[in-house]
Design goal:
By secondary structure, the chain is of the alpha+beta class. The chain has 6 helices and 4 strands; from the N terminus they run H-H-E-H-E-H-E-E-H-H. Strand 3 and strand 4 form a beta hairpin. The radius of gyration is 17 Å and the shape is elongated. The termini are far apart. 16% of the residues are buried.
Length: 133
C-alpha cells in the first residue's frame, strides 16, 4: 500500500520506519505526504471501490504522475471513482462526468467531453493536456 501510494521511501527514511508516529492530523507529514498516507490507508483494506476526492491536489506533478500510475495499475481489480479539479488526474479515466453547478453536463471519455464542453476544452488546453487547434 505504501509503495503504491509513493510513500514507502518517505517511511523508510524516518528513524522509526513503520513505527513512526503520524501525530494528530498527520502533522509530522507534509500536505502531499498526508494525501499519500490517506491513499495508502484506503488501499490497505483491499477495497472493491476506491473513492478519491481531490486525492492528489497537494502533490507535485512528478509524484502525482507516480501515484496516478500506481492507481491505474488497480484497473480491473478495483472500481475507482475520482473527484478532481486537476484534469491530469482524470485524463485516462474510462468514463468522465463533467459537472457544473451540481449538475452533470456531459459524460464520456476525456476526448468526448472536450468535444462536447467548450469550457472543459479550454481548461484541457490550459493544462497542456491537448494541443491548440
Amino acid at each position: 500500500c505504501l509503495k503504491r501510494a509513493q510513500l514507502w521511501e518517505v517511511i523508510q527514511q524516518r528513524p522509526e520506519g513503520l513505527n513512526t508516529r503520524v501525530g494528530e492530523r498527520g502533522m509530522s507529514f507534509s500536505g502531499g505526504q498526508r494525501q499519500r498516507l490517506g491513499i495508502a490507508r484506503a488501499l490497505y483494506s483491499d477495497p472493491y471501490v476506491l473513492i478519491l476526492d481531490e486525492a492528489t491536489s497537494a502533490l507535485d506533478t512528478k509524484t502525482e504522475a507516480e501515484v496516478a500510475k500506481a492507481i491505474a495499475s488497480l484497473r480491473g481489480e478495483v472500481t475507482i471513482i475520482a473527484i478532481a479539479h486537476r484534469l491530469s488526474t482524470v485524463r485516462d479515466s474510462d468514463e468522465l462526468f463533467y459537472m457544473e453547478s451540481g449538475f452533470v453536463m456531459a459524460r464520456g471519455t476525456f476526448d468526448e467531453v472536450t468535444q462536447e464542453v467548450p469550457k472543459f476544452l479550454e481548461q484541457a488546453r490550459l493544462a497542456g493536456l491537448i494541443a491548440d487547434a
